[in-house]
Amino acid sequence: MCGRFAITLPPEAVRSYFGYVEQPNFPPRANIAPTQPVPVVRAERDGDGVVRRHFRLLRWGFLPTFVKDPKDYPLVINARAETADEKASFRNALRRRRCIFIADGFYEWRRGPGRAKTPYLIRRCDRQPLAMAGLWENWIGPNGEEVETACILTTSANGLMSSVHDRMPVILERHAFDLWLSIDEADTPHACTLMRPAAENVLDLCEISSAVNKVANDGIWIQAPAAEPQALPDVIAPPARQGELF
C-alpha cells in the first residue's frame, strides 16, 4: 500500500511530464499524508469540446457516493486493483473517474522484530516524476456540500518491493497516461490492463531515518539515506494493512 508520498521536483518539470493545462506554483512537500489535499491529474472535456489534462487538488481519502456520513466510513487511501471492478465503492470510478496522483517518491515501512518498522523511500531510477494510478469521486453530503476525494490503486509487489512490503502502488509509464485518463468508458478494459506491478528496472529504494514517521517533518532532509542501512531480506511476510479496502 502507499500511506505517504512526496513531490519535491520543480513545478515546471512536473507540468512538462504530466502535460496538464495549469501551471500551479506549489512548494516542495516531502511528507504528504492521508486526508490532506493532494494534486492529481485528470482528463476533462473543456467548453470547446476538447478533452485536456488538468491539475486538481482532491482530498486523499476516497468517499463513495452512497456514504451518508463520512464519520461512519473508514478512511480509504488505497484500493486493491485486483478487485476494484467488483466493489460497489470503486466500480463506477474505475470506469469513469480515473486519475493520476502526482509524486516523485513514496514511502513504505518494513516490519522488523516486534513492533519495529524501517522506512524506505521509493523513487524512479531515472528520477522522473512518479505517476500513481488513482480513482476519484465527487461526494455530495446531505446538506449539499461537495468534496472531491481520491485513492491510490495498489497491486502486488514486484521483486524489489517484496523485500519491504507485499503491495505497491500501480505505477503508470508516460506513454500510458492517455489511456488511463480516458473518459470514454469503452476504454476501461484496456486501461485495466495497466494495473500491474512495475517492471523491475523502474524503481529503486533507499532506507531513510525514522524522521518521516512524524507528519510534521515535511522537509526534503527526511529523505537523506540512513546512516547505517539494514540488510534487506529476499521477501517478507504480508504485513498488517490499514487504509486499504479489500
Question: What does this entry show, briefly?
Answer:
The protein is mainly beta and 246 residues long. Helices cover 10% and strands 34% of the residues. It has four helices and 13 strands.
Global geometry: globular
Spatially, the strands of the biggest sheet line up as 2-1-7-8-12
Task: Report the strand count.
Answer: 13
Superfamily (CATH H level) name: SOS response associated peptidase-like
Rg on CA atoms, Å: 18 Å
Counted by DSSP, the helix tally is: 4
Structural class label: mainly beta
- Please indicate the percent range of residues in DSSP E strands (runs of 2 or more): 25-35%
Helix share, percent? under 10%
CATH class: Alpha Beta
CATH topology: hypothetical protein yedk fold
Mean pLDDT: 92
Level-2 CATH architecture? Alpha-Beta Complex
Number of domains: 1
First-to-last CA distance: 12 Å
Low-confidence stretches: 239-246
Largest sheet: 5 strands, antiparallel
Provide key terms for this protein.
246 residues, mainly beta, hypothetical protein yedk fold, five-stranded antiparallel beta sheet, five-stranded mixed beta barrel, globular
